[in-house]
Amino acid sequence: MQTVLYFDICALPIFLIIILTVLIRKMTRGITNRLFITLIIILSFMTLSDITLELSLRQLPADGLRIFTATLSAYIYYTTQSFAMLGYYFFSFAVTGTWFRVRLNKIKMMICAPFVLLMLILLTNPFTGAAFTVEAETGYARGFLIWVIYAITLLYSGAATLYIVHLRRYMSKTKTLSLMSLSILIVGAVVFQFFYPQYLVETIAAAFSCLLIVLFVLRPEEITDASVGSLSLFAYRRELKKVLDMKRRVQIAVVDFINAKQLYYYLGEERYCAYLAQIIKQIETIFVREHVFCDIYFEQPGYIYVIIENMEFDVEDCVRRVYGDMVRSSEKAVSSGERLIPRVCCISVPDDINDFEEIIRLGHEFSTQLRGDCLYTKASDIVASRDYGIMSHMDLILNRAIAEHKFRIYYQPIYSVAHGRFISAEALIRLIDDEYGFVSPGIFIPAAERKGVILPIGDFVLEDVHRFISENDLDKLGLEYIEVNLSVMQCLQEELPAKLAMLGEKYGVSPDKVNLEITETTSADIGAGIMDNNLEMLSGMGYTFSLDDFGTGYSNMQRVSRLPLKIIKLDKSLVDDMQSPDGLSIMRNTVKMMRDIDKELVAEGVETEENLQCLEELGCHFIQGYYFSKPLPEDEFVEFLKKHNKVTA
Ligand code: C2E
Ligand code: MG
Ligand code: MG
Asked: Which domains does the chain have, with CATH numbers?
């Protein structure tokens, strides 16, 4: 019986194309990719041996060489076939993200048992002829145990298919079907070949399904971050969902490079990414050296997540060693000594936290809760802190505050050096929650911005400040205007001018009594558009603007000079830095520059007499800070003014 070789011959170039695709797309990292490459190489050898077996039987003279070549080819064929099926079964674990299961010894032994039986049959075959025989005259003939080999092949395919079906909800339909195609096509081909041995269709079936896998399953662009070449945030979120769903126990080391943005600008994108890629490589090397199984994920601009399967692994010790290496190597890589500053948090899942959103949020926020230069923390310590309780119940706290009108406005007096008294004040929102007590606006304002509930809060602030102005005669109190903080979302509201006009009319408050504070991020991030229109319209109506927190962001001085800003508020950090000669020089020049472009200056966060005197000497117009007063409730603020502004109401 002449066998048809064309199928095998066609399969070979397909495998070659797949290997090239995998290499060109750099799909060589990670267990899934490595198993897939191994599988393709094994299948290529299987195809080759199938061809040489047939050709030697057909072409070579019936002598010793023919027997030798055919026997060797048959052994290679059956061995590679067995390895391919085992590899495919392992691949089904890796590709579904459940590789951790294979690492259990019990499971490994169960998976490998049929394979060992296969190998025994093949190893004893020279004496028993149980699998096949090759004779000079009769050629190749199947042995009496050949069905065992086929049965085990079917067993592996069936098991892999069932496993993929079992985990289908974690994958898209296309991915599930493409993965299943491998077993369906191969099983179909094996069964077909069992009955029609002259048609060698098994390898072409495998080649087609591998093609489907490359096209629809292994999509590196979905799960890798091209900038540093590691797994992406998308892949991290997907893996984390799986970890929680399957109730796996893992440690997650989150690295937050707190100065990532600055270094990105400083080094430029290319050098920054190369530097990060090098750090990720170092982390990888350490884990490989310690034989710890882990995946490393990256999120722009500077978060690294490492999911570690081994609960006994000492993350803190590893962090300190990697940090040491990082410091040494960055000194070589980054000439000026500028380097990424990491903060690391280790989360034990599910012991510390078992909620998806909370784990993601903790990763982004833990570093804000660390003091000074603390490098490492455990999530359990953060979770126990009061701020964390507030953060994780922020939805409830904000909804309750909005529904039950819990917000209050406090006023912090602002001192005028020229007048020698307080001529304005900043309205600062306060929230006392029944359960959590005082909640800082520094925490709930950004949270409200993220959750999209900042507008009703901003509306309340504007309304309450207007009410306050209408109920108190500012002139008599010695006040010229009240400063109100505007959030980014408010600045982007098209109806903001109309809203303010309506409030002004309702409370009989003229625009010159209200000064609106915008932040550097507001003015820098959002270029033109609604924001600029709003500022222009509002300043046309008579409202004035302050630029808040100057010195904390990246100031575009051209833009600062173009915006209709009356006042620049120098951030507390600039004031605090005046202790050092450099800081003092920065402050002196900032004040001079701002005065040159006709801006009025408020120094924020002034706490000491020394700072006050220094700022007065430098020519700062207004002073705000605990030195004079903390923000006060409405009635105490009025009393304060009556006392200190020597005004009789
Ligand atoms: P900000 O607008 O820069 O307000 C100044 C902050 O510095 C206030 O913090 C104030 O209490 C604090 N401060 C003033 N003097 C001193 C001092 O001498 N020492 C120290 N350590 N701190 C001082 P607060 O009230 O916690 O507000 C934090 C931030 O929350 C504000 O920073 C502002 O960005 C935001 N915020 C507050 N109220 C509102 C509001 O009504 N609307 C909006 N959108 N944001 C607000
Ligand atoms: Mg402010
Ligand atoms: Mg400020």
From this structure: 6-218 (1.20.1070.10), 222-384 (3.30.70.270), 415-429+449-644 (3.20.20.450)
